[in-house]
Amino acid sequence: xQKIGVIAGAGEFPLILxxxxxxxxxxxxxxxIQEEADPSVNELVEGVFWSPVGKVGKILEFLRNSGASEAIxxxxxNKMRIFRDIKPDLxxxxxxxxxxxxxxxxxxxxxxxxxxxxxxxxxxxxxxxxDYLPEAAVFTKRKPSDEDLADISFGxxxxxxxxxxxxxxxVVVKRGAVxxxxxxxxxxxxxxxxxxxxxxxxxxxxVSKPNQDMRFDVPAVGLQTLKSCLDGGVRVLAFxxxxxxFFQREETIALANKHKATIVAI
Length: 266
Known about the structure:
Elements: E1 3-8, H1 13-23, E2 27-33, H2 41-44, E3 49-51, H3 56-66, E4 70-74, H4 90-98, H5 104-117, E5 121-122, E6 137-138, H6 146-164, E7 170-174, E8 177-181, H7 187-198, E9 202-206, E10 220-221, H8 223-232, E11 234-239, E12 245-246, H9 249-258, E13 262-265
Parallel strand pairs: 1-2, 1-4, 2-3, 4-5, 9-11, 10-12, 11-13
Antiparallel strand pairs: 6-13, 7-8, 7-9
Helix pairs in contact: 7-8, 8-9
């Protein structure tokens, strides 16, 4: 049986990916990041290797010894751990010392190089996941108004600019003004902050980076994203079609319809 390493972070993505691998007769070799990955990963496969995010050497050793020649990074790791909670091993320390900066692409590019040195190719996060990358569409009963469409277009442009700098992939806008830009705090915090500044009816836009490396940090939205929108006073959630994962689609659309919110892939 073909094997593939799955480095599992937070959220639903790793669980879906593992299930997709099993459906295709591919054996997932799972490294689950402690305090991030869902414990139910243990119910899907046996022999899960649980590791703190800073024990990079042990993770590489486990994957090398597993016989997997490919690996996928699935799910998020709280970026603030890099600055607060991480207890790096020697390999992780060497990575941090060698980085020119601590942008997502810089860190993950170095991880990909280390995996390659172990004979393991890091492959796109989109493998097996086509069903979760929707085409352009309006998913909700409430359609975007002309004002919404203008803000979506403006927000798309601004988010692409921020993405080109590898700062973040989400912006919150209202009437042609940028209210919040995602940085290390993550999408939900950005949405809550921007929505509070907009005093209701703001627009959140999430996009891929202009030169998105599909091996890591592919944008994603889902139920928690919408809940943050509703809590923050953001009534329109727009994301880039074909390049953004849409998880928990049915539940998310149902909740949006209940609250007369709009979800649109552009």
